[in-house]
């Protein structure tokens, strides 16, 4: 590209080009003679390079008109020298670009979702993950870290559930039963997830 070194930095075009500096793009609507870019034309590559060079020069001119911020970065070593780096703050892109990756495939329906769709059962509205704890006067998560479902674990006095009276669990610490029930539900959910995944893979 040494032949372009002495060309002027100012470029004039019959129809002004438009820019999308956020995407570092130039849109040139000027007409190009078909004969100039025909594959049989020996100067075809030179024409394309010339048009490209002019548009890149126009883009650089626009970029240099943006605010420039300079910063000094330490290069390391014992000399303590630094390198000055010029930074440009690009505006927000104005053109929508196509996706880099294809759209994700829709997830396979679970057994329950298929049954609900067949029977016309509408899904219930999901409640939020937070619940108001009247004892503390604060909102707390229903489960997980500091979840309200673990509230029983920290109580020094626990009321015995009527459902456990006269059963083998009557003399077991209710806090232990609460933890065991949570573990049982977690394992149940894991088994159901594996089952759903297996059903989806079988399709």
Topology:
Elements: E1 18-20, E2 25-27, H1 44-64, E3 68-74, E4 82-88, H2 111-119, E5 130-133, E6 138-141, H3 174-201
GO biological process, one term: ribosomal large subunit export from nucleus
Organism: Candida glabrata
Keywords: Nucleus, Ribosome biogenesis
Verbal overview:
The protein is of the alpha+beta class. The protein folds into 2 domains: 16-86, no CATH class; 109-199, no CATH class. The protein has 3 helices and 6 strands. It has helices spanning 44-64, 111-119, 174-201; strands at 18-20, 25-27, 68-74, 82-88, 130-133, 138-141. A hairpin with a 7-residue loop joins strand 3 (68-74) and strand 4. The chain starts with 17 loop residues before the first strand and ends with a helix. Keywords: Nucleus, Ribosome biogenesis. Residues 163-203 are annotated as: Disordered. Its main location: nucleus.
